[in-house]
Write a structure and sequence with these properties.
The chain is α/β, with parallel strands linked by helices. The chain has twelve helices and nine strands. It has two domains: 9-237, TIM Barrel (Alpha-Beta Barrel), CATH 3.20.20.70; 243-306, Non-ribosomal Peptide Synthetase Peptidyl Carrier Protein, Chain A (Orthogonal Bundle), CATH 1.10.1200. Strands 1, 2, 3, 4, 5, 6, 7, 8 and 9 form a nine-stranded parallel β-sheet that branches. Helix 8 links the parallel strand 7 (167-174) and strand 8 (199-202). The mean pLDDT is 95. The structure holds flavin mononucleotide. Flavin mononucleotide (FMN) binds next to loops.
Length: 307
Amino acid sequence: MFKSNEKIKLALAPMAGITDKSFRQICVENGADITWSEMVSAEGLTRQSLIDNKSLALAEKFSLAEKDYWVQIFGDNPSSMAQAAKIIEEKIKPTGIDINLGCPVKKAQKAGYGAIQIKNIPQVIKIIKAIKKEISLPLSLKTRVGIENPQEILEFAPQLEKAGLDQLVVHARTLKGMFHETPHWKIVKELNNILKIPVIYNGGIKTTEDIKFYSQKTGCQTLMIGQAVIGNPWIFQARRQGLHILIKTIIRHAELVQKYYGDHGLITFRTHLASYLKGHPNAKRLRRQAVQIETIDDIKQILEILK
Ligand SMILES: Cc1cc2nc3c(=O)[nH]c(=O)nc-3n(C[C@H](O)[C@H](O)[C@H](O)COP(=O)(O)O)c2cc1C
């Protein structure tokens, strides 16, 4: 069970289109203990040349300072998944590899990867065994509590553990519950008592109080935060930012985006900027401008209005 004197670790959740190198660096600089890559396609890694490989680029660390870092892969073919894991072990040297069994989007469901794979646990076991044969790094898997019934995980997780899994990340919502269902934390608590491997809690953490609540209720030593980090990387330090820090962080983040991805990367920064500006008195007008920025100067102009 949870002992209050043990340090809780906080992980940044994998978020496709959001947790690129620049944002992960911002989160580590603001106290995130553990980071996750965006989901990386096993087919993209294994079917295309490794030179200029987009999937491999997604898996890169921002620097050696990214010390506790997991690369997440997705796919339903055991051999491609094993090969992809091996490539990542050799080229990236992360803390471990993580399997995506949580993505709920229609495209993933059609292609047969993500949360829908909960429907075919024997195949997931094949994937786990194939990967374990190829790599010596720890193997993690991130999943939801079920397709519709949150009890499902109590049945399938012990099978995954038996197949050789080293860590389980539980997004405490069902596939049907998408991103806003009230988290089934009691199920995670129960699961944490059943499994021997570490269980990481994920789902619905929005505040420092939530961090305390979910760690005490579930007994999980590591908690993972997703949506609430966007526009608020200070959540890892249990403090809200003042205007000065807000402006400094926005510029730092934008400069990192430019460093890693060039001017074009700033297009993806628009979402982050709009989120940073949430809650500001002029938010509506500022956010309309935020989604049109193309250069760091455009960003600085918006920040002038904030001052
Ligand atoms: C924009 C977006 C992209 C996401 N991409 C991934 C992903 O690539 N892999 C994954 O396992 N989960 C992904 N997730 C799910 C999150 O990792 C997390 O499980 C979910 O948001 C629940 O945590 P939260 O309630 O703290 O947001 C994504 C979520 C969002 C909002």
